[in-house]
Amino acid sequence: MEFSYLDGTKAIKNLSINIVRGKKVALVGNNGAGKTTLFLHFNGVHRPSKGVIRFKGEKIDYSNKQLKELRKSIGIVFQDPDNQLFSASVYQDVSFGPINLGWPEAVVREKVEQAMQKTSTWSIKDKPTHFLSHGQKKRVAIAGILAMEPEIIILDEPTAGLDPVGTGQMMQLLDQFNQTGATVILTSHNLDEVYAWADDIFVMENGNIIAQGNPEEIFRNEEVLRRANLVKPWVLEVYDHLVAKNMIRHQPQSPRNREQLKNLLG
């Protein structure tokens, strides 16, 4: 597919992508590579200038009825949570989506509380949203999406602005959501987290996808890293150095995180 903005900027160029249901998927690449633009095609905010988008094999026709159903199934959390939070209190903000889905009041209350418990925001449910920290705002934005129980959740830089502890908690939260059977798709410049977390990685450069594969395939492809201006995750770099120095044996599968590397070191 292709997509151009009104000023003529061609943001997506002859791109083809297939995302497998139930996977943890990461899109990586430089700023301006087209990641956010692509995301906004997934739930019909943008419409391709050329080509089609399919959901569950069905072509999106952009009718009001189909877009409404699509957006029930696919939730997007933007990089800046202030772009999503607009109600007076946390509870009101999280309940906005379920209310607009037309659910009975009792169902809304149940789904909102479940989402807020999962995101550790129930204790701040009565707080004004503008008094929250950046990390709290991100959790509230995610709770608002989870409360609608989408099949797919898309997150643009979910760990941006979070400290290491907050980053770890966020990735655990996304793991939990994925374990319910949902598909999780994110963009991130935190390549260490992407390497540790993702099942599949798509690399974008200049409006196109230049590589896709599992984390080790992507981060061992020196040409792809060079073209997309990416760096090898530190765990993989340290592991390769230790193997080269005969300090540890080469493994069939490289370690993906700190704990796996520490286990190899004994």
From TrEMBL:
User: What Gene Ontology cellular-component terms does the record carry?
Assistant: ATP-binding cassette (ABC) transporter complex
Keywords for this protein: ATP-binding, Cell membrane, Membrane, Nucleotide-binding, Translocase, Transport
Check the record and name the InterPro entries matching this protein: AAA+_ATPase, ABC_transporter-like_ATP-bd, ABC_transporter-like_CS, ABC_transpr_CbiO/EcfA_su, Co_trans_ATP-bd, ECF_ABC_transporter_ATP-bd, P-loop_NTPase
Q: Which PROSITE patterns match?
A: ABC_TRANSPORTER_1, ABC_TRANSPORTER_2
A GO biological process held by the record? cobalt ion transport
Q: Which residues form a coiled coil?
A: none
GO terms (molecular function) for this protein are: ATP binding; ATP hydrolysis activity; ATPase-coupled transmembrane transporter activity
Q: Which Gene3D superfamilies match?
A: P-loop containing nucleotide triphosphate hydrolases
Q: What does this protein do?
A: Probably part of an ABC transporter complex. Responsible for energy coupling to the transport system. Part of an ABC transporter complex. Responsible for energy coupling to the transport system.
> What protein family is recorded?
Belongs to the ABC transporter superfamily.
PANTHER family according to UniProt = ENERGY-COUPLING FACTOR TRANSPORTER ATP-BINDING PROTEIN ECFA1, HEAVY METAL TRANSPORTER
From the Swiss-Prot or TrEMBL record, give the protein name: ABC transporter ATP-binding protein
